[in-house]
Write a sequence for this structure.
């Protein structure tokens, strides 16, 4: 089975750190974020495709020296369009019809145990209860049904289930018309939702996902690792 890691973004919210280093290679406790991710990839994954662009030469250098039994490829994201669906479509030629694969972001920390849970389902969509102002995720009988804006109460205090950016998909996703977003990107979760009737997704709720988007997130991840928290 293959895994795709999205690592093409410029990490603008982490400037100036990301002006000279791609975000997946920022260090946490003595090793890059990407190395933490690779260490937690399930054993069932034999091949990894990293989709890069910003400072991609540094990603290539890192992977060339990284000791692993897994087969790792680095490809450049197609620049004719942008967004998570664009990153995914850049990998289409790497798959045979009918293959399932795991999708991850290259700037988040994950638990190996939780990632292994995703692989038990034909298709899976990761969520976690967080106090972050993303769209809230709704499901029925464990199957994805909708995205919605958070209520004022959710935004201020209670939080909501939000997408973690982890998926188990299959190659049918490549046949769908990508959903164009207001900023001009084409979005993977939005494309998935648009085909929910013919492409059902099991919603997997996790507890150990740690997103790293801002300087505060980066410090939080450092603190957790230094304390040898459960994500180590």
């Amino acid at each position: 089975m293959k895994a795709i890691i999205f690592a093409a973004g410029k990490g603008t919210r982490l400037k100036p750190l990301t002006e000279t280093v791609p975000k997946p290679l920022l260090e946490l406790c003595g090793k890059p974020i990407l190395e933490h991710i690779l260490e937690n990839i399930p054993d069932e994954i034999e091949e990894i495709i990293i989709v890069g662009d910003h400072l991609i030469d540094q990603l290539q250098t890192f992977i060339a020296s990284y000791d692993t039994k897994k087969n790792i490829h680095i490809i450049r994201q197609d620049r004719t369009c942008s967004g998570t669906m664009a990153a995914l479509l850049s990998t289409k030629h790497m798959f045979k019809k009918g293959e399932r694969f795991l999708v991850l972001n290259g700037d988040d920390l994950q638990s190996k145990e939780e990632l292994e849970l995703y692989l038990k389902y034909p298709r899976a969509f990761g969520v976690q209860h967080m106090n972050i102002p993303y769209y809230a995720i709704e499901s029925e009988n464990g199957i994805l049904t909708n995205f919605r804006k958070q209520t004022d109460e959710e935004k201020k205090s209670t939080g909501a289930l939000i997408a973690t950016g982890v998926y188990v998909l299959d190659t049918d996703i490549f046949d769908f018309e990508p959903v164009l977003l207001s900023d001009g990107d084409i979005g993977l979760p939005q494309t998935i939702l648009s085909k929910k009737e013919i492409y059902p997704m099991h919603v997997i709720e996790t507890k150990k996902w740690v997103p790293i988007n801002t300087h505060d997130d980066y410090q939080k991840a450092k603190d957790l690792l230094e304390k040898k928290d459960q994500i180590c």
DSSP finds seven helices and 15 strands in the chain. Residues 2-126+164-199+222-226 form a domain with the Spore Coat Polysaccharide Biosynthesis Protein SpsA; Chain A fold (CATH 3.90.550.10). The chain has one domain: 2-126+164-199+222-226. Helices lie at 33-39, 56-65, 84-89, 112-118, 152-158, 188-194, 215-226.
